[in-house]
């Protein structure tokens, strides 16, 4: 059992700018899926989209 499982975490989430297609491709390639959540970036520009992945 790893430390995230011992701490009770079941998934990991991250946010990336909607226009950052290279990062989005990387995250999808390692199992992250878009959750549908979209937030304004505090500094403006592209919105932030949320991706999540279940932990083993």
From TrEMBL:
Organism: Rhodococcus erythropolis (Arthrobacter picolinophilus)
GO molecular function: acyltransferase activity, transferring groups other than amino-acyl groups
Start and end residues of each N-acetyltransferase domain: 1-56
Cited PROSITE patterns: GNAT (PS51186)
Annotated protein name in UniProt: N-acetyltransferase domain-containing protein
InterPro entries given in the database record: Acyl_CoA_acyltransferase (IPR016181), GNAT_dom (IPR000182)
Domain of life the protein comes from: Bacteria
